[in-house]
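PROTEIN FOLDING TASK:
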Amino acid sequence: MESCLPILLHSLCFMSLVLQMSYALDSISAGENITDGQTIVSAGGNFELGFFSPGSSKNRYVGIWYKKLSAGRVVWVANRENPLNDSSGVLKLTPQGVLTLLNRTDGVVWSSNVSRSGQNPIAQLLDSANFVVKEGNGNDLGDAIWQSFDHPCNSFLAGMKLGIDRAKGLDRYLTSWKSTDDPSLGDFTFGLDSTGYLQLILRNRSVVQSRSGPWNGIQFSGYTQLRPNPVYSFGFVFNQNEIYYHFNLLNSSVPSMLVLNENGMAQRFTWVDRTHDWILYSSAQTDDCDTYALCGGNGNCNIASSPKCMCLTGFVPKHPSDWEFGDWSNGCVRRTKLDCQGGDKFLKYTQVKLPDTRQSWFNKSMNIQECKQTCMRNCSCTAYSNLDITGQGSGCLLWFGDLMDIRQVSENIQGIYVRMAASEVGSSFSGNPGARKSTGIIVGTVLSAVLLLGIAAVFTKYRRDGQIFGFSHQRRSEDLDLPMFDLTTLVNATGNFSEDNKLGEGGFGAVYKGVLKNGQEIAVKRLSENSRQGQVEFRNEVAYIAKLQHRNLIKILGCCIQVDEMMLIYEFLPNRSLDCFIFGLLRSSPYILIAFVI
């Protein structure tokens, strides 16, 4: 028994040493260092810190990367702007709690550069990938001397804060690598912009590339892909001291992170253990409509439309000729000026990413009616919305000047009320295409039914003759294939609807002579505001007219339904009396153009 005692004591000492070494693996104390070839590993084995060379580069950097995952993806780099050119680097923790990276000549290559010091500091790599310098007896990260999460590189990890800490004077944002071989500062940044109301903005140097839209209490209005999911939860904190966006993993065994790559794409990746690889989970930029202000001021981008850009209701292209060539950047201007004397109205849009909020004002305590009244009192105010849509909605967000970077989104999450001249707004009109379509269907269905009853009566009367207004009974059910004219084509053809090209004008609108690029002469009937009805009804009426080939009806070539314009395009009749042409216009329906032969 006595002979076993020394062995037992030796074993206990060995186990104690192993435990001490295991604890020391994730941290270094003041006076200790890490040399090239040495690493520390977080307690759970998720992350590793040490020296590395990216891609084909021979430069050496201090960084943090995934340890358990075979890909070994780097998530943080200390000396990204000052690489070492050999393996002589040493990372030290000073007694004051400052991390310093020294080269062969003991020159400081990088430093954590903190102003406050602590007693018995240690630098510890946590299982979240956060490299923290703290006092030896402290566990509160809020009291940390320094932490790498306050200085992100190109990766946004669970537990990080993307945003502003006013108390510490921090602005945390992502910066891309210059290339896959060079982690130095690239051209792209992605972070929270606090000018006006808060939104995430991706920039190429100083130029805005895309943005998230404002946070509405549930999500960013332009990131419809950001919704509850089985991988991570997310949230937004906005108080007196801090403003930041964050996310947390719902399952620690399924890592996920957002990376701003060297090409300026902000992409979320998730690890799939079955394939031992990262997969693209989502992207902040999904299509061309995510390009900032693609359609210019007061334009609306819809990726499902052709062309992608249209003006908001009541607005027209600022430079129509540019729109014809697919350059929408100059945007749209009001067709009717605002009254600003209390007579203006508001048009509600839904299913849109809210405009750029850098020219906005907000108030957290107002309700939506107070918000509307505040906007009405300021002639520069062009739109308003709830700040927070949770519950019954609360707060007020006002926009001033042109409404920039609006796009159509798939979900009806939040409404925005755009200020319009009263003449541009119907009694129960909504600016979004869905609502307009519903209104058009209701009106169009009623009027079309009346028209069909009339046609049916005429058909019954003339059935024995086998003709109805000049088209045969056999052909009356054929599908219509009516060309759609682009607005810019008609603008160019008519000289921007110049007075010199006006053939006449009546209660239903004006008729202009135009010449297409192929030399064909046309007559364009531009319906007036008072004669316009729903788009669905308009289409139905045109479909019926297109089938009528009576000798006293001018042949219809097509129509245009674009940028809140409704126009009919007819063949031009140079050999007939212009006076009678106009006479027929004045007495015809809003859709039918009659030529009286003399």
